[in-house]
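Late entry, zinc ion complex.
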Amino acid sequence: MKKTKGFLLMLLILAGLGTFLWKQWNQAFEWSTGVIYQADFAMRPMTTQAGIPVLLYHHILEDRENKKFRYNEEVITPEQFQQEMGVLHNEGFTTVTLRQLEGYLDKKITLPAKSVAITFDDGYLSNYKYAYPILKRYHDHATIFAITEDVRQKPELFNPDKLNYISWPEISRYHDVFDVEAHAHHFHRVSGLGTSYLLSKPPEAVKKDLAVCKSLTHAAYFAYPYGQYNDTTIKIVKDLGFHMAFTINAGNVYPGANKFALNRNCIFPYTTLDEFKNIIRGQ
Ligand SMILES: [Zn+2]
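Prediction complete; structure with ligand written out below:
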């Protein structure tokens, strides 16, 4: 009897520890709401669609150094990124800034038929380490939507077992390729059943948090953490003076689209090169 009790206790402790570690692991990244990603990805229209694709990346790690984030669906290898940027280059795509994209959406400027915008969420140091040299080689532009609370005061040493973030001094150093825009300050978090703080916290608190992020980055553009938003968040983002806001709903952006609920196409480690080509061709 005593043995059984001991065994049950051990089982309970292990289950508890497992749940805790799983939560921690998921919390670190955006895909704690992986369900939303999956649903959105599945909903991607398969018909040809006018407009410009906005790509969404997160973290990049070499396969050999990726031990801790091995099964995260938003960590790609530098090789995959190189291949995808190579496709853009070979097919004659122009990477546009978000400012140019805004001009296009406002019908103030025209952009080349083969245009694409590249974005990275959260502000991982790997964006500078791995994506920057590739983008620089192709004279590409990209945008990082930073969680300002995580932006470091000083550059960090890169450690693939940790989540390293970009630092304020590096933002100006890498500015020739990367613009930095807003993704929340402290509120890039989820409560309860994976609901973004932007939806679960009082609107005044949300506004305050996003205002801090905006003033630190001088941002004009915003990306909803976890892609979650509603009418109240849209109003807050508009009231704060942002010009555009991005979701993680798949599809292109085009003049006439809601500038505060703009589509982006998530690129995953399992996105094949053919799927990538379909995304950039709007198919
Ligand atoms: Zn994020």
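Residues 20-49 have pLDDT under 50 and may be disordered. Will revisit in the morning.
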